[in-house]
Design goal:
Shape: elongated
Number of strands: 6
Order of helices and strands: HHEEHEEEHE
Number of helices: 4
Largest sheet: 6 strands, mixed
Amino acid sequence: GNVMLDQQQRQQSFAVAVAVVSTIATGYFILRQPSAIRDEPGVVFLLEAMQAHHNEDLRYPIEVQRNQQGQIDEIWFYLDKTRDDFTVRYIFREMTKLPSLEKLVITSSDVNDDDLRWVRNMPSLKSLSVQWSPITDAGLKHLEDLPNLQEVGFYSTGVTYERAREFHAKMPHCRFLDSWCCGCMTIEAER
Protein backbone atom coordinates (compact mmCIF):
# COMPACT_ATOMS: atom_id res chain seq x y z
CA GLY A 1 0.00 0.00 0.00
CA ASN A 2 2.72 2.50 0.99
CA VAL A 3 4.85 1.61 -2.05
CA MET A 4 1.92 2.32 -4.38
CA LEU A 5 1.24 5.64 -2.63
CA ASP A 6 4.93 6.65 -2.88
CA GLN A 7 4.92 5.89 -6.61
CA GLN A 8 1.80 8.01 -7.18
CA GLN A 9 3.29 10.87 -5.18
CA ARG A 10 6.51 10.69 -7.22
CA GLN A 11 4.51 10.75 -10.48
CA GLN A 12 2.50 13.73 -9.30
CA SER A 13 5.65 15.51 -8.12
CA PHE A 14 7.29 14.83 -11.47
CA ALA A 15 4.26 16.18 -13.35
CA VAL A 16 4.27 19.32 -11.22
CA ALA A 17 8.01 19.78 -11.76
CA VAL A 18 7.61 19.42 -15.54
CA ALA A 19 4.78 21.96 -15.53
CA VAL A 20 6.83 24.43 -13.47
CA VAL A 21 9.93 24.05 -15.65
CA SER A 22 7.82 24.38 -18.79
CA THR A 23 6.18 27.54 -17.48
CA ILE A 24 9.51 29.06 -16.48
CA ALA A 25 11.08 28.17 -19.84
CA THR A 26 8.17 29.68 -21.74
CA GLY A 27 8.31 32.84 -19.64
CA TYR A 28 12.06 33.09 -20.11
CA PHE A 29 11.69 32.71 -23.89
CA ILE A 30 9.02 35.42 -24.03
CA LEU A 31 10.95 37.79 -21.77
CA ARG A 32 14.08 37.37 -23.90
CA GLN A 33 12.20 39.12 -26.71
CA PRO A 34 12.11 42.73 -25.44
CA SER A 35 10.58 44.11 -28.62
CA ALA A 36 7.64 41.72 -28.51
CA ILE A 37 4.46 43.45 -27.50
CA ARG A 38 1.91 41.02 -26.15
CA ASP A 39 -1.84 41.30 -25.79
CA GLU A 40 -3.28 40.45 -22.39
CA PRO A 41 -4.58 36.83 -22.72
CA GLY A 42 -7.73 37.53 -20.70
CA VAL A 43 -8.71 40.38 -23.04
CA VAL A 44 -8.09 38.25 -26.11
CA PHE A 45 -10.31 35.50 -24.66
CA LEU A 46 -13.08 38.00 -23.86
CA LEU A 47 -13.04 39.56 -27.33
CA GLU A 48 -12.91 36.20 -29.10
CA ALA A 49 -15.83 34.91 -27.01
CA MET A 50 -17.89 37.99 -27.87
CA GLN A 51 -16.93 37.71 -31.52
CA ALA A 52 -18.38 34.20 -31.57
CA HIS A 53 -21.90 35.38 -30.64
CA HIS A 54 -24.36 37.26 -32.83
CA ASN A 55 -26.54 40.10 -31.69
CA GLU A 56 -30.14 40.70 -32.86
CA ASP A 57 -29.08 42.18 -36.22
CA LEU A 58 -27.02 39.05 -36.94
CA ARG A 59 -23.87 41.14 -36.84
CA TYR A 60 -20.98 40.22 -34.69
CA PRO A 61 -20.89 42.44 -31.61
CA ILE A 62 -17.13 42.70 -31.98
CA GLU A 63 -14.93 42.16 -35.00
CA VAL A 64 -11.23 41.85 -34.27
CA GLN A 65 -8.40 42.21 -36.74
CA ARG A 66 -4.77 41.36 -36.10
CA ASN A 67 -1.51 42.72 -37.44
CA GLN A 68 1.26 40.58 -38.96
CA GLN A 69 2.66 39.82 -35.50
CA GLY A 70 -0.72 38.43 -34.41
CA GLN A 71 -1.59 41.27 -32.04
CA ILE A 72 -5.01 42.88 -32.04
CA ASP A 73 -4.69 46.22 -33.80
CA GLU A 74 -8.28 46.92 -34.89
CA ILE A 75 -11.63 46.47 -33.17
CA TRP A 76 -15.08 47.13 -34.63
CA PHE A 77 -17.45 47.30 -31.69
CA TYR A 78 -21.14 46.87 -32.63
CA LEU A 79 -23.51 47.00 -29.71
CA ASP A 80 -27.19 47.40 -30.44
CA LYS A 81 -28.17 48.75 -27.02
CA THR A 82 -29.02 45.23 -25.87
CA ARG A 83 -25.93 44.82 -23.74
CA ASP A 84 -25.89 46.06 -20.18
CA ASP A 85 -23.79 49.03 -19.06
CA PHE A 86 -21.47 46.82 -17.00
CA THR A 87 -20.49 44.80 -20.07
CA VAL A 88 -19.71 47.92 -22.09
CA ARG A 89 -17.67 49.51 -19.29
CA TYR A 90 -15.79 46.27 -18.62
CA ILE A 91 -14.89 45.80 -22.27
CA PHE A 92 -13.63 49.37 -22.55
CA ARG A 93 -11.47 48.99 -19.48
CA GLU A 94 -10.05 45.71 -20.77
CA MET A 95 -9.27 47.12 -24.23
CA THR A 96 -6.68 49.39 -22.59
CA LYS A 97 -4.57 46.23 -22.17
CA LEU A 98 -4.08 45.89 -25.93
CA PRO A 99 -0.78 47.69 -26.63
CA SER A 100 -1.07 47.50 -30.44
CA LEU A 101 -4.65 48.74 -30.80
CA GLU A 102 -4.59 51.37 -33.56
CA LYS A 103 -8.19 51.55 -34.76
CA LEU A 104 -11.41 51.51 -32.78
CA VAL A 105 -14.88 51.77 -34.34
CA ILE A 106 -17.89 51.98 -32.01
CA THR A 107 -21.35 51.70 -33.57
CA SER A 108 -24.88 51.78 -32.15
CA SER A 109 -24.04 51.64 -28.49
CA ASP A 110 -24.64 53.44 -25.25
CA VAL A 111 -21.00 54.43 -25.00
CA ASN A 112 -20.99 57.89 -23.45
CA ASP A 113 -18.60 60.74 -22.67
CA ASP A 114 -17.42 59.14 -19.45
CA ASP A 115 -16.58 55.88 -21.26
CA LEU A 116 -14.12 57.73 -23.48
CA ARG A 117 -11.88 58.14 -20.42
CA TRP A 118 -10.71 54.59 -21.12
CA VAL A 119 -9.73 55.54 -24.67
CA ARG A 120 -7.16 58.01 -23.34
CA ASN A 121 -5.31 54.95 -21.99
CA MET A 122 -4.80 53.60 -25.52
CA PRO A 123 -1.66 55.48 -26.61
CA SER A 124 -1.17 53.55 -29.86
CA LEU A 125 -4.67 54.49 -31.11
CA LYS A 126 -4.52 56.22 -34.51
CA SER A 127 -8.17 56.18 -35.56
CA LEU A 128 -11.41 56.46 -33.58
CA SER A 129 -14.91 56.43 -35.03
CA VAL A 130 -18.05 56.65 -32.89
CA GLN A 131 -21.45 56.33 -34.57
CA TRP A 132 -25.00 56.55 -33.23
CA SER A 133 -23.91 56.91 -29.61
CA PRO A 134 -24.67 59.57 -26.96
CA ILE A 135 -21.22 61.21 -27.12
CA THR A 136 -21.21 65.01 -26.70
CA ASP A 137 -18.64 67.79 -26.85
CA ALA A 138 -17.57 66.94 -23.29
CA GLY A 139 -16.21 63.53 -24.33
CA LEU A 140 -13.52 65.02 -26.57
CA LYS A 141 -11.47 66.15 -23.55
CA HIS A 142 -10.47 62.50 -23.01
CA LEU A 143 -8.86 62.32 -26.45
CA GLU A 144 -6.75 65.48 -26.40
CA ASP A 145 -3.60 63.82 -25.09
CA LEU A 146 -3.45 60.79 -27.39
CA PRO A 147 -0.06 61.18 -29.07
CA ASN A 148 -0.73 59.02 -32.14
CA LEU A 149 -4.34 59.92 -32.88
CA GLN A 150 -4.55 60.85 -36.58
CA GLU A 151 -8.27 60.65 -37.36
CA VAL A 152 -11.57 60.90 -35.49
CA GLY A 153 -15.20 60.79 -36.57
CA PHE A 154 -18.38 61.20 -34.52
CA TYR A 155 -21.39 60.41 -36.71
CA SER A 156 -24.90 60.91 -35.33
CA THR A 157 -23.60 62.01 -31.94
CA GLY A 158 -23.87 65.26 -30.00
CA VAL A 159 -20.41 66.52 -31.01
CA THR A 160 -20.66 70.00 -32.55
CA TYR A 161 -18.61 71.56 -35.32
CA GLU A 162 -17.48 74.34 -32.97
CA ARG A 163 -16.07 71.84 -30.46
CA ALA A 164 -14.43 69.89 -33.28
CA ARG A 165 -12.57 73.06 -34.31
CA GLU A 166 -11.43 73.60 -30.70
CA PHE A 167 -10.26 69.99 -30.55
CA HIS A 168 -8.38 70.43 -33.81
CA ALA A 169 -6.64 73.54 -32.47
CA LYS A 170 -5.20 71.40 -29.65
CA MET A 171 -4.46 68.45 -31.95
CA PRO A 172 -3.66 69.90 -35.39
CA HIS A 173 -2.12 66.60 -36.57
CA CYS A 174 -5.54 64.92 -36.24
CA ARG A 175 -8.10 64.85 -39.06
CA PHE A 176 -11.69 65.38 -37.85
CA LEU A 177 -14.10 63.70 -40.26
CA ASP A 178 -17.28 65.54 -41.17
CA SER A 179 -20.04 64.43 -38.86
CA TRP A 180 -22.45 67.29 -39.56
CA CYS A 181 -22.90 67.65 -43.28
CA CYS A 182 -22.14 65.90 -46.56
CA GLY A 183 -18.39 65.57 -46.14
CA CYS A 184 -17.55 69.14 -47.06
CA MET A 185 -16.85 70.14 -43.44
CA THR A 186 -14.00 67.71 -42.69
CA ILE A 187 -11.24 69.42 -40.74
CA GLU A 188 -8.01 68.28 -42.32
CA ALA A 189 -4.84 67.52 -40.39
CA GLU A 190 -2.03 70.02 -40.67
CA ARG A 191 1.13 68.62 -42.12
